[in-house]
Amino acid sequence: MIGLAQLLPLLSESLWHGVAVFLRVAAITSMLPAFGEQTVPARIKLVLALAFTLIVAPAVAAIPIPVNFGDTTLIILTEIAAGLALGIGIRLFILALQTAGTIAAHATSLSQVFGGAGVDPMPAMGYVLIIGGLALAVMTGLHVKAAELVILSYDFMPMGQFTAGSVLSEWGVAQVARAFTLAFTLAAPFIILSVLYNAALGAINKAMPQLMVAFVGAPVITAGGLFLLLVSSPLILSVWVQAMDRFLANPFAAVP
Prior knowledge:
Order of helices and strands: HHHHHHH
Oligomer: single chain
Largest sheet: none
Strand content: under 5%
């Protein structure tokens, strides 16, 4: 009984530490690519969050058990806010890939093919790129990088402390700008193809007004878009996963 009485405070501290870490980990896991998708059941997400907690908790310094309700609420809110901020930052890379696929599909007249194949309505190109990107991210060790990110986040977002609103808003705007820049960069080959196609179509129409260039050109742009997707998708996904890896390695670095 004496030994049990001495063990109870230690168990209480370990349990509180695990709960505090779980709050941040669960918030990030709910937004994490592949692991936090809407198609993944909630029970699987809970198991994944617990698994990440078991990995992260031993590497994070423990904090004393709060003595009042106010301190407990503060820690809960700060951990959830920190996890959601980082999770949204990672999720923006999926939105960038989806936006790139949408831009490419509209540029090559393929925006209506299999539009409802995914959970969120998107063109076929966006769906193909997202599935390929998620598979590539998991194959390159997304779970390990995510655990390292959570451990690193405690250096920039200490437990029980709110990040300044000005700092967080500036960081968020920079991440959104990077996501749109990345999306346009990934879709650049399809935009260039569309410009060249429309310029050639205009020249042909000017030279031969009687020719129905729309009927002739539609199959060409469709075939060209599919061929360009086949050729450029490996490069697109490699550029995308490298950009996400840089964010996971240091999410608070200056945006290039």
